[in-house]
Design brief:
This protein has five helices and six strands. With about 160 residues, the chain is α/β, with parallel strands linked by helices.
Length: about 160
């Protein structure tokens, strides 16, 4: 099964793969002033008004967190999730955080290393090992299968 934000683009691709494989294809959508299209490959969906509730639903039982290039919502989700892992609210050994697209993510990760870590010492060096940077689906898959199936929920 796949759970996404339920919208177009990469979310639609993920939902379509699950849908065409006869798996659960869930969309966790958000009410926005400019409504985004819900993709047609959802077997179930739920819409939320507040982002924080939507994030809990997205994070709650995931086996892997995969982030593709996106806007403020994507960055918000990534930073909240990496904070939950950093503070041991989610066990770092059970759920991988994967950033797909070196071209998009490298400037942000460079800022985290150069400014947040080196200049201000606001995080530990090991905190930059909480996520994986990849370019391909195969690289992401190879990371995901190294993690054990998640049996517990940490919220």
């Amino acid at each position: 099964g796949v759970v996404t934000g339920g919208g177009p683009g990469i979310m639609e691709a993920g939902n379509r793969g699950a849908f065409e494989s006869k798996g659960e294809s869930v969309g966790i959508t958000i009410h926005l002033p400019m409504e985004q299209r819900t993709n047609p490959y959802l077997t179930r969906s739920q819409s939320f008004y507040y982002f924080f509730v939507r994030k809990v639903m997205l994070f709650y039982t995931a086996q892997a967190y995969v982030f593709f290039p996106g806007g403020f919502g994507t960055l918000d989700e990534f930073f909240e999730l990496v904070t939950l892992v950093q503070t041991h609210k989610i066990d770092r050994n059970t759920v991988p955080l994967i950033l797909v697209g070196r071209e998009f993510w490298t400037p942000l990760l460079k800022y985290i290393n150069d400014t947040v870590y080196e200049q201000y010492s606001a995080i530990d060096k090991d905190d930059m090992k909480l996520y994986h940077l990849v370019d391909t689906a195969q690289e992401a898959y190879d990371i995901i299968i190294r993690y054990p199936p998640r049996k517990e929920v940490y919220y």
